Amino acid sequence: MVAxxxxxxxxxxxxxxxxxxxxxxxIVARVLAGEQASISALAARYEMSFAAVQKHVxxxxxxxxxxxxxxxxxxxxxxxxxxxxxxxxxxxxxxxLWKARFSQIDTLFSDTRSQE
Length: 116
Hints:
Blueprint: H1 9-19, H2 22-32, E1 37-38, H3 39-43, H4 50-62, E2 66-71, E3 74-79, H5 81-115
Antiparallel strand pairs: 1-3, 2-3
């Protein structure tokens, strides 16, 4: 298997599972943009229960995309840009791999056409 980045296969699976949901992607975007927010403040932005938002944050936290920190009675959610960078690195490596494969196919077709 290709060594994609510093993430293990299980970590990669958790990251992309977490990012597969639009609400979770929105939460990550908000907290990475510097909008550190409590779970209750995040919940106010969505048409879903506090518990549902809390579950989304738990999935993001398990994937390492966000962290929760106690601040009084609230839990403040912050983004983890290093984990996003790891996912971006993986996608960049996969893109390079596919571009190389397409280049090889193009070369093969060019060689075949020139032999005709």
